[in-house]
Amino acid sequence: MRRALSSVSRVASTSSAPLLGSAALRSRAVAALATAVEPKKISVREALREAIDEEMERDSRVVMLGEEVAQERVVDTPITEAGFAGIGVGAAMSGLVPIVEFMTMNFSLQAIDHIVNSAAKLRYMSGGMYNVPIVFRGPNGPPRAVGAQHSQCFGAWYSSVPGLKVVAPWNCNDAKGLLKVLHLCSAYVVLAAIRDPNPVVFLESEIGYNETYELSPEAQSKDYVLDIGKAHIEKEGSDITVLTFSRMVGVALEAAQKAAEKGISVEVVNLRSLRPLDLDTIVNSIKKTNRFVTVEEGWPQCGIGSEIIALANEHCFDFLDAPPERITGADVPMPYTWPLEDEAMVQTQNIVNAIERVCYRNTTNQ
């Protein structure tokens, strides 16, 4: 079976490193490094490994639990997701900073009581007496030809739960910066109570693990972090906005390039964070282009696109020049055979067709 992380390349000493003093100091350190190094091309898998490795080196309270991983603070567990997720929640309540890795997020369903009813609710139900600084991470979305039970997107599932934060990176900068900030925020909360202590669900595209991207000079700094709840405009445009996340960002950029050949200027917004959503960036982009399409690999009903369209109706309805559209995976269990799976998954042309329809360039393409 495919695994999210082959191994952590090295494990840190058992002494805690001091935390960074301030956001300003971190910014100066990142800027200094950015002038001294060149971008490097690595896979998303390697970016995730770098983030975990550096945070384990920084803070000896960071531990990792999962199946088929073992080395000092990287704890091999039995094949019992409910068991090691529960251990992770208890460890977080006791002062550690656990990273719980699921071999696939589909298996997180075995542990969903600990995620939804323990981790997400304990801080609220204890009146703030208990923090649960924990990260639940693993491959999400269709990985190709593994059947319906292993091919689901959990973005909408977990982002509906108060008390959780949910992020979904696309490229290497996303993966490293978002994963590190999760651990940094956990560490700060326990020691200084200056960052958000909520548990985080970290959704990684399984198809995207081996995709390579440039890791920017800034992201090569051990102090590089990205803020949860902040989207990123990957491509500016003037005619229509495409709002998406994870692997679909790359597919949307391909669609934007094809649309440009037909004279349509597309703005592509990488949401990065699904809970909280970056409402300001979403609304401002829609107000700018007056049209939008949402794209996700999950099912249409109660999806991320549904939420964004509801928010648009509430916050910028009068700016819309056309009804928005959702592009999602087909509303069926994922087929196993590759040709049928292609039909069920979002393809570049699906997005191009939606862009054309919303821009009233073509009203017949599906």
Automatic annotation (TrEMBL):
A Pfam family annotated for this UniProt entry: Transket_pyr
InterPro entries referenced in this protein's UniProt entry, alphabetically: PDHB_mito-type, THDP-binding, Transketo_C/PFOR_II, Transketolase-like_Pyr-bd, Transketolase_C
Top-level class of the enzyme under EC nomenclature: oxidoreductase
Signal peptide: none
Recorded superkingdom: Eukaryota
Gene3D superfamilies reported for this sequence: 3.40.50.920, 3.40.50.970
GO molecular function: pyruvate dehydrogenase (acetyl-transferring) activity
Enzyme Commission number(s) from the entry: 1.2.4.1
Catalytic activity: N(6)-[(R)-lipoyl]-L-lysyl-[protein] + pyruvate + H(+) = N(6)-[(R)-S(8)-acetyldihydrolipoyl]-L-lysyl-[protein] + CO2
Oxidoreductase in keyword set: yes
Cofactor(s) of this protein: thiamine diphosphate
Keyword Oxidoreductase recorded: yes
Any one of the GO BP annotations: pyruvate decarboxylation to acetyl-CoA
Domain Transketolase-like pyrimidine-binding: 42-211
Alphabetical UniProt keywords: Oxidoreductase, Pyruvate, Thiamine pyrophosphate
Functional description taken from the UniProt entry: The pyruvate dehydrogenase complex catalyzes the overall conversion of pyruvate to acetyl-CoA and CO2.
Protein name: Pyruvate dehydrogenase E1 component subunit beta
Native source species: Acanthamoeba castellanii (strain ATCC 30010 / Neff)
